[in-house]
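Progress note, sequence design subtask.
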């Protein structure tokens, strides 16, 4: 029995090694992505995503693909995002209260163009995409799913590959529609081998597959002035509304191994299977409104995020499944509403200043979830940013725009009860601070 137990550990180690093929470095568990946790482009970061539904840059493919029609010119954008987190848990049994402080570092690239020029019809059809890669382009699939005794934050950590592709077209008198897809990866690994009790393997067969999973994002924008009074001035001039819908999405990894142990475990062998999800994005409904003049604009949005669906996702997760836990202690999530408000002011021909604020309620309902020990708190998000537009360049036909955005997130204190593998309980208080800086350069064509 001891030998079999030791081998089981070794076999699990082999399975873990397979999983490591899919992740280049350890990363904190995360049920978020840069689009919802921080903001994709500097404008989104600076306005706490309050004006993201009305951002004509390529990040519109994630927030509101219909707004790709707001600017007729093509666009090429590159940028960087650095998020520095200090996530704390006041635990009397721990040496210090900093639970996690690993940064998230993304390099971003996006492009938009008008495909209508390929047709004989004088009707614009805009195509855009944006991609973000962790660790400044060196890490495409940061992934970690685990149980823990010390606690782990629900929505922070390194983010996996961020990829969106979408299109949009104007329909009629200020009404535009758009659709895009968020691309995530469903990875599967399988290992078959024959092993001795010492862990020496032979006749190994290893296969790894990653299939894209496409989740839809829909958006529509209505310029109220152009729709209801296109030929005369009225009180609706300058007002725009937007409606968006994002289906739920997540990245997943499944690892299967089958090991035959010489003279101990005959064919078909010892089978081990692990299936888990990461970077879950809830089904989201959003509505936004803004008022815009030549010199300034103000707007806001409200999002409903249906996090309760994550409970069903965890039921099929072999790491986060809590069937063995009492019903009163299982992880529970609430559907939440997130209000945001922001403004932008044109300082001069070349400079614009923007800001925003949001209040994000925690979707984590339960404060006691044994083994997983998730932590999550309400947070106040404040942003500030600046744009500089250079209208005259020696080589380029169109202006060059530089953006920078800063965001601060204050995680409010919240009490939790951690439960270790032996059932011992520890009361802790979670809080934290997050600083985000983002910059980009945009070329028009």
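Output:
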């Amino acid at each position: 029995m001891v030998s079999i137990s030791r081998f089981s550990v070794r076999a699990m180690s082999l399975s873990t090694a397979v999983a490591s093929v899919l992740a280049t470095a350890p990363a904190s568990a995360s049920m978020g992505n840069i689009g919802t946790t921080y903001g994709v482009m500097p404008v989104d970061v600076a306005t706490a995503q309050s004006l993201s539904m009305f951002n004509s840059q390529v990040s519109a493919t994630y927030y509101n693909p219909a707004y790709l029609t707001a600017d007729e010119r093509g666009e090429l954008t590159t940028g960087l995002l650095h998020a520095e987190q200090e996530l704390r848990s006041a635990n009397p049994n721990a040496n210090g209260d900093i639970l996690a402080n690993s940064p998230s570092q993304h390099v971003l690239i996006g492009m938009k163009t008008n495909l209508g020029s390929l047709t004989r019809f004088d009707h614009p059809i805009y195509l855009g995409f944006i991609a973000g890669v962790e660790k400044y382009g060196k890490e495409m699939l940061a992934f970690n799913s685990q149980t823990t005794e010390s606690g782990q934050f629900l929505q922070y950590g390194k983010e996996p590959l961020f990829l969106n592709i979408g299109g949009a077209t104007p329909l009629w008198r200020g009404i535009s529609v758009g659709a895009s897809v968020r691309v995530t990866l469903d990875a599967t690994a399988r290992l078959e081998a024959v092993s001795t009790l010492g862990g020496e393997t032979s006749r190994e067969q290893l296969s790894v597959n990653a299939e894209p999973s496409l989740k839809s994002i829909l958006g529509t924008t209505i310029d109220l002035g152009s729709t209801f009074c296109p030929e005369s001035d009225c009180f609706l001039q300058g007002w725009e509304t937007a409606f968006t819908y994002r289906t739920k999405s997540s990245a997943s990894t499944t690892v299967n191994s089958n090991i035959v142990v010489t003279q101990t475990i005959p064919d078909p062998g010892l089978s081990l299977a692990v299936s888990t999800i990461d970077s879950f994005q809830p089904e989201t409904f959003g509505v936004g409104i803004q008022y815009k003049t030549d010199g300034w604009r103000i707007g806001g949005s409200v999002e409903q995020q249906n996090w309760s669906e994550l409970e069903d996702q965890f039921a099929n997760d072999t790491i986060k499944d809590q069937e063995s836990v009492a019903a009163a202690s299982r992880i529970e999530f609430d559907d939440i509403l997130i209000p945001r408000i922001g403004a932008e002011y044109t300082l001069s021909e070349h400079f614009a200043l923007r800001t925003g604020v949001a209040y994000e309620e925690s979707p984590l309902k339960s404060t006691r979830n044994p083994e997983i020990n998730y932590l999550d708190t309400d947070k106040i998000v404040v942003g500030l940013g600046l744009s500089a537009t250079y209208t005259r360049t020696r080589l380029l036909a169109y202006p060059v725009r530089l953006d920078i955005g800063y965001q601060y997130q204050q995680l409010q204190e919240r009490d939790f009860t951690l439960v270790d593998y032996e059932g011992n309980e520890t009361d802790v208080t979670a809080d934290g601070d997050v600083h985000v800086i983002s910059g980009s350069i945009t070329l028009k064509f």
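The radius of gyration is 24 Å. Work on this subtask will continue into the next period as scheduled.
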